[in-house]
Write a structure and sequence with these properties.
By secondary structure, the chain is mostly helical. The chain has seven helices and three strands. The protein has a three-stranded antiparallel beta sheet with strand order 1-2-3, with helices on one face.
Length: 209
């Protein structure tokens, strides 16, 4: 009888071990499938983001279409508080002075660069949307102030116009974009590096394959 009980106990333990092994195997299979699903979604996300970046090569006309009228309206609203100006199309007229808001004034390439930096960074969609809005709005405000200051210099025959204009054009414009991006990184606590982290992730997949 003792032998029979011992045999039953051994059979029971054997069955339990078999069930545990099957459960562990299933758990590992689920975890593996989950990991593959996450990797697949991440790869798809990278592909979509970079396809959008490639399509942005043709987006400058759209950027100018949106931001040129916004820039002209915003500048005129500020200038009219101090000067009796007249706005005709992209021209701002004051007495004998005429300022034309050209593409370089709108700085569409700066918006495009900020958008590319955003899209080539691994961040969640909600944070990405907030990040794009923040960088665009902040650059828009800075750019409006830049144009207003330069225009005021022209209207007042300031000798500072030439040097200030060159300083903005050759140095500060680039620094503004860089500063805005780093401020954006700090505010939204973005730890990822544009492009680099995507390449690093894809390389790790290749290495681990």
């Amino acid at each position: 009888m003792l032998k029979s009980m011992k045999k039953e106990i051994n059979e029971y333990l054997k069955n339990q071990n078999a069930k545990k092994a099957a459960a562990d195997k299933m758990k590992k299979s689920i975890m593996k499938n989950k990991k593959l699903s996450v990797e697949k979604n991440k790869i798809i996300s990278i592909l979509i983001r970079y396809l959008i970046v490639l399509s942005l090569m043709f987006s400058l006309p759209i950027i100018y279409k949106i931001f040129t009228p916004l820039t002209i309206i915003s500048i005129s609203k500020i200038l009219i508080l101090f000067y009796n100006i007249k706005v005709v199309g992209d021209l701002i007229i004051y007495n004998s002075y005429t300022i034309q808001i050209i593409a370089a004034c709108v700085a569409g390439s700066a918006y495009l660069l900020l958008l590319i930096l955003n899209l080539t960074t691994q961040i969640k969609l909600k944070k990405r949307i907030y990040s794009i809005l923040f960088t665009f709005i902040l650059f828009f405000i800075v750019n409006i102030l830049r144009i207003v200051i330069l225009t005021a210099f022209v209207f007042n025959d300031s000798p500072l116009f030439d040097i200030t204009h060159k300083l903005f054009w050759y140095l500060l414009s680039t620094l503004f974009v860089v500063a805005i991006w780093f401020l954006n990184v700090k505010i939204f606590k973005i730890k990822e590096i544009p492009i680099y982290d995507d390449i690093k992730y894809l390389y790790s997949l290749k290495k681990g394959a």
